[in-house]
Amino acid sequence: MFGYYLNLALYSLKRSPVLTGLMVLAIGLGIGASMTMITVLHVMSDDPLPGRSTQLYYPRIDPQPLGRGDTNPHSGDNLTWPDAQNLLRANRAERQAAMSAGSAAVYPVSGDGQPFFVPGHYVTADFFPMFDVPFRAGGGWTREQDQQRARVVVLGADLKRKLFGDAPVLGRTVHLKDADFSVIGVLGAWHPQPKFYADLDHGAFDKDDQFFLPLQTALDLSLAFRGQLSCWGSGGDSRKGPDCTWLQFWVQLATPAKAQAYRQFLDDYWRQQQDHGRFPRPVDARLYDLMSWLAYKGVVPGDVRMQLWLALGFLLVCMINIVALLLAKFLRRSGEISVRRAMGARRRDIFVQLGIESALIGMAGGALGLLVAELGLWSVRQRPDAYAHLAQMDAPMLFGTLALAIVASVLAGLLPAWRACRVPPALQLKTQ
Q1: Nearest alpha-carbon partner for 220 in 118, 151, 153
Q2: What Cα–Cα distance (Å) separates residue 97 from each residue in 85, 122, 171, 249, 376?
Q3: pTM here?
Q4: Residue 427 clears pLDDT 70, i.e. is over it
Q5: How far is Cα 31 from Cα 35, in angstroms, rounded to an integer?
């Protein structure tokens, strides 16, 4: 029976090509606009470390004086150097790491050519195992090397290829700014987006880091740091002082009980610092898991959410138009439907037949919607926004586009199909 209904649907669509084209165009435009923004929202709000994000937490302890940062609720999100060092020494988590973004001039290994700047990160040793960073060769450094200010570097795959090609690289020397570093590792494929471990106010959707250096080594060599540096008091902008926040800090806690114990530790640390004349604000230590931290930082811009709602509103308008077109089309076939009813077809049979016709319109509209969505995503990639390069449709979004188109068209066809099934056959045949 399905094949019979399919043939009837195809014949009906071919019989009115203009009306069919209008419905396919309407559903295609609505689906294309909606899926463009749904895809953008998907890549911006997706879990950057699935399967591990529930164990990663960001502690927030605000050392700023009262009244400072009242106009910017995120001004106290980073840590000072002393606080980061105190938390590292306390070692209350399974793993913990302090970090900050940076950039450095890289000199070609051959000595020929001009140096070029690449983005990177300065981190402590637990960064790599805590975030389960994959390595193509070698690995990270140890906590002892952190303390020794070791001049070692982990390279991103792109920078390694640019400097050394396909040659082995472990133990080779890389010249960054004014110092030589020994290569101890090369990253594998690792592209977390958003870049949760960075300063999310400035680098949530930056391109991949091309090198990683020990944090204390970078400080000693006065390498270039990127990100927010917020200072107060009379101590100037010294990064090692207690009056400048600039470091991000993450901890790994395997269970909710350990997370609760770490929250208590943060409260106790806050009170301890108050006893030393710091942390003048009331105790308000917070511990965010990874996804809560992204939500708190508002990683997805408000204009993206607004554009999504506008696109969904446009889809709704398209569906209303399709309801009207299908209603006119189905009711115009009342005579044909009444003959089928008089010959023994049940209302359910007619409803299924018209539903298949709506689904075919949805499939054609979904194919058009894919083209419109790809065009929309291409236009997003031309924008200067930091997240623009992420606007790519993956396999789930591709199948989601087709599914949404079919579901939308079938839903739009429910009322017209039900109305057509309710036409009394005897009354319709009598008027013929």
Answers
A1: 151
A2: 10, 10, 25, 6, 39
A3: 0.78
A4: no
A5: 6
- CA dist 150 and 52 (Å) reads 29
From residue 174, alpha-carbon distances to 102, 117, 130, 184 in Å are 16, 13, 26, 11
CB 221 within 8 A of CB 179: yes
Q: How far apart are alpha carbons 279 and 174 in whole angstroms?
A: 42
Percent of the chain at pLDDT exceeding 70: 88
Distance CA 226, CA 352 (A): 61
292-315 pLDDT tens trace:
999 898 877 677 778 788 888 888
User: Running DSSP on this structure, what letter comes out for residue 420?
Assistant: H
CB-count exposure of residue 38 (10 Å: 0-12, 13-18, 19+): buried
Burial of 125 (0-12, 13-18, 19+ CB in 10 A): buried
Residue 59: per-residue pLDDT: 96
SS3 9: helix
Cα–Cα distance for residue pair 266/284, rounded to 1 Å: 9
The end-to-end CA distance of the chain, in Å, is 28
68 torsion bin: left (phi>0), alpha (psi -120 to 50), beta (else): beta
Which pLDDT belongs to residue 29?
87
Report CA Rg, the chain.
30
pLDDT at 423: 62
> What is the token pair recorded at 130?
């805590």
* Under 8 Å between Cβ of 315 and 408: yes
At position 328, the amino acid (one-letter code) is: A
Query: Mind listing the pLDDT tens digit for each residue in 310-330?
Result: 888 888 888 888 888 877 777
Residue 10 carries which side chain, given as an amino acid letter?
A: L
pLDDT of residue 316: 85
Q: 394 pLDDT exceeds 80?
A: no
For 103, half-sphere exposure in the C-beta direction (CA atoms, 13 angstrom radius) is 11
